[in-house]
Amino acid sequence: MSPTVRCTISPDADDLFMFRAITLGLVDAEGLDFQVRSDHTDALNRLAARGADTDLCAISIAWYPRVARDWQLMPNGGSVGRGYGPVVVAREPLAPAELAGRRVAVPGTTTTAYVVLRLLVDFEPVVVPITPPEAAFEALDRGEVDAALLIHEGRLTWERRGLHAVVDIGAWWGEATGLPLPLGGNVIRRALGAGTIARATRVVGRSIRHGLAHRDEAIAWLLERGGMLKTAGELDRYLGMYANADTVDYGEDGRAAIAELLGRGAAAGLLPEAPPVDFAPAG
Length: 283
Prior knowledge:
CATH architecture of the largest domain: 3-Layer(aba) Sandwich
Radius of gyration: 18 Å
Helix content: 25-40%
Number of strands: 11
């Protein structure tokens, strides 16, 4: 019987893109049986913290210190923003400093986006689940929040609604640090053992490279599945942002950015102190 690797990823286009070739059996799985399912970001973080029901899990980078004992961070599968990232929007023009003390819809307090926005300004978080994707916009419309922090595809759709951008936290981070913003990544359970971890890491890398080499086919597949992004142009733009060379490997500056993020978060009391990130072997 083939060793099983239970994978839990987000339902967002970049994660589906990364795992498409695995899901469809388009690449050599090295004898591993990958079982792929999805859940939203905050739930994925909490799933990894419970340490049950999954062997490979997409998480927020800011959540890694809380699960590092049982999980290695994989070198591939990362979502990195280079001068861009999640966006805070509001019904009226606001300066970033004006968010202080205001109610801001966030997709969960376990996310990287939440931590980075807290590094920028102290606000009152109101958790609005990312599913359904319209929930944050509806909370704004009802006046339940003063602004909303949008991650994933939501950062590309807010302009349709006549909202105003308050701050792109990826742009702010880049100006503050000179580094890209590492938002999400894949972790793999240490208990799988070094051999299976190395094989799984190679297969995931192979799947990502297959997607990049067959981009048009992958976009057509994503459109058939449905989702928040409705056109090939929107998907192409989104994948260009979050499924690219950085997804194949974080690279030197990406790894430095992870250390910077976790260090700043810990210094601000937003994250626990953690040892240097332990990356799974690239294979």
